[in-house]
Amino acid sequence: MSDQQAEVVIVGAGPTGLMLAGDLAEAGVETLVLEKRGAGISNLSRAFGVHARTMEMFDARGIAEELLSRGGARLPGIRLFNRVSLHLAELETRFPYLLMAPQYDVERVLLRRATDAGARIRYDCAVTDVEQADGRVALTTGRGRFTAAYAVAADGVGSGVRKAIGMPYPGESVLESIMLADVRLAEPPAESPAIHGVNGAFCFVADFGDGYWRVFAWNSADQRGDDEPVELDELKEAARLAFGTDFGMRDPRWISRFHSDERQVPEYRDGNVFLAGDAAHCHSPAGGQGMNTGIQDAANLSWKLAAVLRGADPALLDTYHAERHPVGKAVLRSSGAMIRLAAERSKLKAAIGGLAAAAALSVKPIERKAMGMISGVGIHYGHGKDEDALVGTRARDTALADGTRLYEALRRGRFVVLDSAEAAPAAAVGAASAAPDGLARVVRPDGYIGWAGPDDPAAIRDYLETRTGER
What we know:
single chain; alpha+beta; FAD/NAD(P)-binding domain; Alpha-Beta Plaits; Glutaredoxin; 8-stranded mixed β-sheet; 12 helices; 27% strand
């Protein structure tokens, strides 16, 4: 059988891989997705929430409303450990909440977008070998061999691609025998989500908005192997230890067990192979940041791959690791701190930790920073010493002179030049906004500011040429 070819092969049809596939296909890149599962969306829903920054990225792709129409609960705040609250409603965004959306709903929306744009999906294709030579990547599966200019591993914690290229995945197992389920509740908690840890157990309960509640729980006194089935009584016992009640749990639509690791690859790139999502980093489910971080990895990488394939400076691809590796590391720290506080066996240490967290988050700047990290709206990439401080920061949505918004302009998948007398029409969309500081800005396709300064059409054109390959 001859090799099947594409410009980019993505391994893994989860949220990260599908986001990347949709971006690339819409940019005109020949894109192929290899998925080891059979056709169809998994009925499991490990990820449970979509944070504000991810919703902004969906807005920039015209799919935010489609996901919202599925009716998930919109949580304006998160209350942690009965002491600590994060007031998401105070975020400066069109999406000041956590949207409760099971992973399969997110996958359905992203799959529809990717296939509509022309991405090809091949199921039952587990990757067994990866070779790189002469600027090409060849991936071997049980259904043939696939070659491309670039490959992206988005195939999860057990990534076959990562193993095939020999990329280490250092870290440690934090907690074992965490139970995960979607259940109905006869007596729901007063607030959602609710998280509490005490007596060597913790429990998280959050409303999906469809009659079911996401629960994940852990009981230090009852540790079992990941392969052992979870009984509902086991889940209820952990909830009673943590909350003093099991909320009348019943009718689980699915229930499973897993262990929580904290791991991250040292490099997000190996030659022409890139790693994204859980293939690059994994951490505890605390804060609901896993799926969101992977989707944001994809948004960062997609426009760079498309640009280089169209003639941009290949060095642009090195910025993927430089920008996203620190974000993955920060998520490991924040989610790890939350899960360790929840699982603390000592009542005294748990009380001290909870009080310390509550005291810290009562300081508004600290609370804003914490909300920015968890929601993603506070993530930024930094800037060079000769660049304006706006460079690398998230571009907030803004009204444009034609009555549209910045994030609607980003739906064209191109750079957007704001407040410049002369844009470069071949490389970007020109749009006027009312920036209070009078600075011109170039907003990257992923919604971050790439260039800022006094209006200088020549400097803007130079910036765009190196990052788009267009003149």
